[in-house]
Amino acid sequence: MKTSKTTSLPWNEALRALQQGRSPLVITHRSPDGDAVGSLLAMGLLLKALGRRPTLACQDPVPTRFHYLPHHQEVVSEVPEGSFDLVISLDCSDRERMGQVYDADRLASLPLLNIDHHVTNLNFGTVNLVVPTAASTTQIIYELVQRLSVPLDVPLATCLLTGLVTDTLAFRTANVTPQVMEIALRLIRAGASLYTIVQRGLVEQPLSALRLLAVGLSRMQVEGHLAWSEVRLADREATGYQGDSDAGLVGRLISAEEIRIAAVFKEVKDGRVEISMRAAPGYDVSGVALRLGGGGHPAAAGCTLNGSLEAAKARVLPLLRAALAEQEDGRHSEH
Ligand SMILES: [Mn+2]
Q1: How many angstroms separate the alpha carbon of residue 66 from the centre of ligand 1?
Q2: Among residues 155, 134, 127, 126, which one has the least CA distance to residue 43?
Q3: Same domain for 231 and 160
Q4: From ligand 1's centre to the CA of 36, what distance in Å?
Q5: Residue 150: inside a domain, yes or no?
Q6: How close are the terminal C-alpha atoms of the chain, in Å?
Q7: In a shared domain, residues 173 and 36
Q8: How many angstroms does the Cα of residue 93 sit away from the middle of ligand 1?
Q9: CA of 117 to the centre of ligand 1 (A)
Q10: Same domain, 211 and 144
C-alpha cells in the first residue's frame, strides 16, 4: 500500500513464502464474512496460478449468499490427511480465530504466513503481513497478485472485489481512500460485477433474517449514547433464521444518530456468547474487544466469551461505558 510504512512491511518475505510453499493450507476465520471467503478463494486462485494445489479451509460453511463466488464448493471444514509445508492465515487477528481447522499438534511446526488488516492483530505468524490501512484483506491479496504478475481474470477479480465491498459496506466506511476506489475500478474493469456483489453480498437477506432483526430491535436498550441488544438461541428457532450473523442488528443500532457505541450479545452453541461492537466516527471499540480476547477495527470489533448472556453483559457493558466516557472526554479536550 502506498503509505510511508510500506518499506517496513514484509512484502518480500510474504512473496518468498508463497513461492516456496509447495502444498499450502489456507485458513480463514470461523463465521466467515465476505472478506474471509473472498480472501480464501482469491488466495486459492493465486496459488493455483503459481502452480500449487492449495487446500482451502474454514471451520464454518460458506454462507449461501456467497455462493456466487467461483470455487466456493472447494472450501473444506475438515482438513484432509496429507502433508502441508505452509499455513496461510487470512483475515484472522489471532490464532484462535482460525478455529478448529488449525490443529496446533499437526501444524504448529510449519511456517505460518499471517495476512490481515485488523489493527488488533497479534502478529502470531512466522511472517506477519499485517496492513491496518488496508480496507480489506483482499486489498492486501490484490497487491500480492500485482507483485506476482498473476493475471486478473473475472473469478479472481470477483473474489477480491467481494472482500472490498463487504468490509467497506459498499465503500461507506472511513478507511475508503482514493487508492481503494482505484483498485475497485480495476477489479470492475477486469470483469467483476459490482451490482451482483452488492446485491448478493450485502443487500439480500432471507425473510427469517428480517424477523430476527425485528426481535433484536424490540429488545434494544439505550443508556445515554450507548445502545445494546441481544439475540438468543431460542430466537433463531422461533424465526427460522439459519445464518450465524446477527442479521444486521448491530449495524442498525449504530445507525441511530444519538448512539456512539453499540453492541449485540449473541447466544451461540456450547454455552458461549459472541459480542459484536460498533463505534460511530471518532469512537473506537477495538480496544475493548482486544481486552476481552477478541479484536477488530476501531469502528467494528468483536469477541467471544464463555458463559451466559447475563454474565457477558455484566462483563462487557461496564467496559463499553468506560470507553465511551473516556472517548467523550478526549473529544471535549480536543476543542
Ligand atoms: Mn476483513
Answers
A1: 15
A2: 155
A3: no
A4: 6
A5: yes
A6: 33
A7: yes
A8: 9
A9: 6
A10: no
* Residue type at position 331: R
In a domain, 194, yes or no: yes
Domain residues for 224? Answer: 207-333
Could you tell me the distance, in angstroms and rounded to a whole number, from the CA of residue 167 to the centre of ligand 1?
6
Phi-psi region of 21 (alpha: psi -120 to 50; beta: other; left: phi over 0): beta
Tens of pLDDT, residues 57-114 = 999 999 999 999 999 999 999 999 888 999 999 999 999 999 999 999 999 999 999 9
Q: How far is the CA of 334 from the centre of ligand 1 (A)?
A: 31
> What average pLDDT does this structure show over 227-256?
94
> What is the rounded CA–CA span in Å between residue 133 and residue 184?
16
- pLDDT tens per residue across span 154-209: 999 999 999 999 999 999 999 999 999 999 999 999 999 999 999 999 999 999 99
Strand order in the sheet with 295-296: 221-223, 226-231, 261-268, 272-279, 300-306, 295-296
Q: Return the C-alpha cell found at 134.
A: 488496508
Q: What are phi and psi of 64, to 5 degrees?
A: -60, -30
